[in-house]
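PROTEIN DATA CARD
Card holder: Putative speract receptor
Chain length: 503
Origin: Stichopus japonicus
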Amino acid sequence: MGRIQFPVFTLFIVMSIFAMPSWCVNNAPAKTACPNEDGTIELGYLVAFENKDESADSTAYDLIGRVISGAMTLAIDTINNDSSLLPGYHLMFHFWNTRSEEDDVLRGVTNLWKEGVDGFIGPDVTCTIGARLAHAWNLPMIAYRCYDPEVNNKDLYSTFARTSPTARKSIRSVIALLKNFNWLHVTIVSSNRNYHRTVTKVLIEDLPKDKVEVQTSRTFKPVPILLQPEDNDTNPFQSIIESTYKKTRIYLFLGEEWEWMGFMQAAETEGLLDKGEYLVVALNFVTFKDKWAKDGLPWFYLAPDKAKSYMRHTLWLFNTEVINPNYDEFTDKATELVQNQPFNVSFGGLDLDVPIEAAFLYDAVMLYALALNTTLSDGECARNGTAVMNNMFNRTYESITGLQRHIDINGDSSASVSVYGIFQENLLERIGTFHDDETFETLPSKDITWFSGRKPLAVPVCGFDNEFCQRNWIPIYIGLTVFFLVLIAVLCLSLTILQELEI
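Structure generated from the sequence above:
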């Protein structure tokens, strides 16, 4: 019965936005337009802290809220202890677990609004309807893990911004790489995880606009981490390789590291790695870590020798590595704080690898404080989402990672992406970067080491079906015809001469 009620609740919320906009005003919380007379500013923090169904298939990526949420507390504490930020005001937050469910996002945004929050940090995973509600109520909302492309439409989502780079921002680097090497024919292989589906959708939409032809696109279900396929019967990628390799040379792969290894094993089984004619561009938009240069990517320990071999046929796109020398202190402090109220997470002594979304979360709160500081100085109210966003859009800021980032006029954050590959002694290093004009350039003294000594071609010289090298038979036909005509004439003449001699 509970499942039947969710769509009804969703329909009710959507109708309240589009059909009855006055309802939001007439039923607003008891707070006044500028309710911060006591100096308290309240934020609603929306995060997927656990799955609705604990037995449902998920990956660690779906539950990173448990790991990163300490960055929320750390940012709030940093702001409250900085006399130059929001002087005379005190920030606090209310925590709502969205459980990766859109209906729970709706409930969270609505309940926090009723409690009278001045703005929202989040939601993550799914954010479109939450952003639409914030627009309807003119409250600021800054997300830290949202990749939905729709929300950059400021006619419908005017009070929304995000510190996580969008799929469209990130794939501009993919397009620049493909165009640089004249790889204008590709095949996309992607997991069906939410983020990978979003990136694939944008790739299919945008690649043809830049004259890159998508030969075909294939998806696969997430593969368990411990799966180590050893033959054609257990490798889920074998059928993908068999159905695509005759019409492609360049693969765009979106998946986890262990899934990439399974894909490369299938390619090896089919003989695609023998001559260096095939290449995989792996799109893994997580932040590269320096230790990976020597130790390899996570999960390479499953088959380290194979992983090194497969790396020679792969270029990786990662978010550029962190340059803040104090970043480890930030992640350590965030990990410590998430174990306290209101989160009370216990890691059982595990040494955690804090994902980059912790930085995006911290940046979101700090960016909000900077914009709000200007808004209040201008005499506007904290609950005026339009005013807050006007002071946030088209703004450059320094991320906790140490990298410079920019929020554009649509509220989208810039992406900082680099290309990594094998360079000398089988080390994984950054070998290329992208410029603001969306061009790719290899770094000085970091030329790419191609397996065959030269870059692979996106299309074979003679084409996939030998269509560019078909012999022109017309001259041959003409030559053979002339030859036989001459031969017949000679034979006829010879017979005539013989007959005359006999006479």
